[in-house]
Amino acid sequence: MKDEFPGKKTRAMLERGIPLFLNGLRYEEQLQKAARRGFRSAWQIVVDRAEGDFIWDLDGRRYIDFQNGWATNPVGNAHPEIVAAVHEAHQRYGFHYDHPLRYELAEKLLAVMPDSSLTRFSYEVSGTEAAEAAVYLALTHKERRHVIAFSSAYHGMSIATKVLSGLGGQFSRYLEAWQGGVIRAPYPYSDDLPAGLSQEQYVDYCLWYLDNHIPNSVVARDNIAAVLIEPGLAEGGNWIPPENFLKGVRELCDRNDWLLIADEVLTGLGRTGRMWGVEHYDVAPDILVIGKNLSGGVEPCAGIAARDEILGDNDAFGSGSTFAGTPAGCAAGIKTLELYERLDLVANAARLGGIAAGIMNSWEQYGIVRQVRSNGLLMGVSFCKPDGDTEARDWWYARAVRSRMLANGVWAISDREDTIRLYPALNMDEAVLREGLGIMEEAIRYVDQHGQTEGDSPAWPTGVAGF
Ligand SMILES: Cc1ncc(COP(=O)(O)O)c(C=O)c1O
Question: Looking at the structure, do residues 45 and 95 belong to the same domain, yes or no?
Answer without folding.
Answer: no
